[in-house]
Design goal:
With about 425 residues, this protein is of the alpha/beta class. The protein contains 14 helices and 20 strands. α3 packs across α4.
Length: about 425
Amino acid sequence: MPNIAIVGAQWGDEGKGKIVDLLTAKVQVVARYNGGHNAGHTIRIGDQTFVLHLIPSGILHPGILCVMGAGMVIDPWALDKEMTELTDRGVAIDDNLVISDRAHLILPHHRALEALTEEMRGSRKIGTTQRGIGPAYEDKAGRRGVRMGDLLHPAALPERLQEGRRHYEQICRGTGREATVDWEKLAADLAHFGEILRPRIKDVSLVMHRHMAEGYSVLFEGAQATLLDIDHGTYPFVTSSSAIAGGALTGLGVPPTRLDGVIGIVKAYTTRVGSGPLPSEIGGVLEEQIRQKGSEFGASTGRPRRCGWFDAVVVRYSARVNGLDSLALTKLDVLDELPEILLCTGYRYAGELITEFPADLSVLDGCDPVYETFPGWQVPTAGTRDFAALPDSARRYVDRISDLVGAEIGIVSTGPGREDTILRSGSAVTAWFE
């Protein structure tokens, strides 16, 4: 049985939740490997819409084991709220959810530090969600973090909090800010969460090893996306974790030999939230039209997403660093009304053509996108379930994307529902799962 990683191949919000939900019926385990509740995976089932921030998207399927890996940072208040909301809506959460004892916690002082850091950046703000993600990863790297496993030892929590407290209070003194955390209450709150979560806190690497040894198939669910990866994204306008396929291995304690394939999720156009480069950004009335048609507002924050034409340079880079075997192309139907569609094939900078994605942000800031123009199909594609039933110009557009990025397109999504999907015969996806 295959073990497949699902990764975002642009700047996030590509529709990973829908694709994980779609494929969950064909596996036994869904394991999230990075990020925190800055992610938002939106899933529509019938007339119901679910937005998941921490819990793997497989939770909406009965009988699926959902795993939260060591590569995540977890706000216990946010997790408790999400679990409560799901159970109130009839979603079963019992022994089908386990949490790594090595996952680090997001605590109140992390949120305060992130707000302060963004304020001090002024006009160079990263555009973070200010949910404490970055400072929690900083404490992890600085070896002063608190982990899920620490919740199982409540008497030791006050001492475990001391290094993080010293760091936070030193920054407050240095910037003339008041330190506002009630550390005694925090230790008591964490002890309470320890009691609630105790049955779920496990050695996730061991859990995964045993399940895969029994022949269970796993979907590795990534959050954020390749161009937001801390190492390979548009630094510093990135998240604080490893969002690429390699992060699935470190984030879950799984060896490389256990990964059988990688599916990259891309939109039929490009979006990003927050600051940073977006070479193919559209601007003006047309960008707003696409934003409204595609409901391009952050699932976690509600912030409007910036919209651009499909950027083949970006996705070709993603195909290389992730080793993409197949692409899932989402939101093709959002382009249905457009009389013409542009596709970015390269950048022109200082008189030269660039076809590979650069690390230097000054190049991205100063480049001009090079476009191919496609005639729009201007007929509805929403709900189409057969690739041959798409308009000729839509099929040509999809196939041209595949040619430019060097990866097959095995899935085409034509709407938000599970059923609004084309699984292309002969693709790696159908070979793995059918």
